[in-house]
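pasting for ref
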Amino acid sequence: MGDRIENDSKIWCFPEKYPQKWNTENIEKTKFCRRSDGEEIVQDEDEEREKQTIAEERKRFKSMKLEVKNLKKTFGEKEVLHGISFSIESGKALGLLGRNGAGKTTTIRILMDVFRANSGEILLDGKAFVPSHHQIGYLPEERGLYPKKTVGEQIVYLGMLRGLSQKTARENMKKWLERLGVAEYENRKLETLSKGNQQKVQLAQTLVCDPEIVILDEPFSGLDPVNSQILKDVVSEQIADGKLVIFSSHQMSYVEEFCEDVVIINHGEIVLDGELREIKRAYGKDRLVLGVIGKTAEELREMIAREWSGTVRAAGVRSLQNQVILELLPGHTAQEVLRRIAEQELDVEIFGKYEPSLTEIFVHCAGDEAEENEEGKKA
């Protein structure tokens, strides 16, 4: 038997930084032995052990709880995380949100033991979380696969680094390339693929080890609507399978679609966390939305300030939709606003209870720059 390569999470998360580690022969020797005639024989004992391990971990998928408690991290003299705390349960997706530089990536890398926190702890089911004892599928925002290697060989390589036998890694590779619609590129070099197809290959390597914990950082980058729908289906399947899913994106519509809970980080601190439905309900309390045909949002705002000041105030605008968000003043009701609309014979396009979008909540918590970033994503 050859020497066993260390199962280093840093290698499979960021392989471009460790090119000297590319040596599938060494990895294969950990799973194979040779007969005197040189032919390789699969070690059935290792295969059975691997199957048993996967079966045991499957039982855990339905009842895991990951808790991050008071994480602090300093680089030099600068503290970048100031006591981050949140939790997530299996079978749910958590939206981990924040502006660029807010601390999301640092938090993720601490979760994966790429960085060590200065203080705080991470627990899984009440016990200290040791990343190397669990299968973690990580799709980083910055792509990290080998452009000059073929698609199939590097997915198998990364699967074996994470403890799979060559046979299982190859089977899983083929399954995921087929599922994601890129099976025809198995023997092509990664650099010859389009950006969208490279992204799907990256997702295949994320899931090749059938991870317990799935971390997706901007997973929809570079995908057209058809491929986005494929990815939506895959993410939904992972959640339904009882995985712990952490989802980070600036595309808030996707976060709203998948995530029951959200955490918003700003300048290394959590400024909002909880169940998204309850957060929306709290932000929408005593607020209405009004749009009138023939009036811009600014014209509506001026009219409200001039004529309705004793009943409501304009709390914000949706400029693109020409809508104003109204906040009821204490002691007043939506019926009073409706009577004023009727008295003035306004041609109403929309009137009703205000439910904020996640983008609006994010901008409120993290500042105007977040809104600019979001608009940039949509452009």
